[in-house]
Amino acid sequence: MGNIAAMYHYVREKKGWDGIVPMHPHDFEEQLDLISKTHRIISLDEIDKFNSEPWCVLTFDDGTKDQYTFAFDILKKKGIPAYFTIMSGPHITGNIPLVHLVHTVLSFKSDEEIWELLSGMYDTCGVEEESQIYKYEQNKLRRYNKFMLNFKLSVTEATIFLESIFQSLFPDKYKFINDFYISTEEIVEMSQAGMTIGVHAHNHIPYNGDPQEFYDIEIGPCKDWMKSVLGINPIWYTPAFGGGVNQKLMLDKLTPVLVQNGFVGAFSTREGEISDNREFWMDRIDCIRLPPLGTSSYL
């Protein structure tokens, strides 16, 4: 049995948020108990120290409020450390990343309404077949909508389309940001409680193929904001979308730039265990693959 890093996003009840697939807090707490039976859950500060038993690092992406409200509360109660990565863009620019616009609109507008709008405005040729990448979605219109918004439309087209609907649902964008994302004060509280805080993204875009340019627009602004506003100097990184379609290129080309700017390690979305003599990029296991939700053999 080897070392692992568990990957988490939303930890909350759905309560109307039909555009996401969250982990229920009760399942999260049960999963921590199950992991603790086979692994020692450690902080990133301990990752390069000698460990006589298999260890697990808990990693959280996106910095959404539920991670503070539910996950952090459970972790504090159990005395368990974890690693949280945050985004600076919503706090600095007031812009909501495309991925969260998609989640929000799919939660509060019916698939019938969204599809009627999309099919009336854009070319939907080939969507029925190509949307099979979302075959786990039983509703065919949900498959069509997700494919159109995430792949068929350009980022600009999808953003303009979604923001017009989002504005009708949440007229006060800044209130939404305050309610949806962990606040600066909460991030500082989590850090002071022993949680490791790392860089996730500025605007949550996938790796663009140019390591220095990508660092300058997506990583550096978040790191600088964390240092100046939060008083935290992050040395760990987790990329949005695991890098996206350019992941393999990112794992190779981005590493020297990260090291040059003080980063000591990063996490990908590749599935696998982590050796005692870890590499700079470490694999993770999606929480839904681990008991009680999944049946993988990592525990």
UniProtKB/TrEMBL annotation:
It comes from Paenibacillus terrae. This is Polysaccharide deacetylase. It is found in: Secreted. Residues 184-243 form the NodB homology domain. Transmembrane segments: none annotated. Its main location: secreted. Gene3D superfamilies: Glycoside hydrolase/deacetylase. GO terms for molecular function: hydrolase activity, acting on carbon-nitrogen (but not peptide) bonds. GO terms for biological process: carbohydrate metabolic process. It holds the Pfam family Polysacc_deac_1.
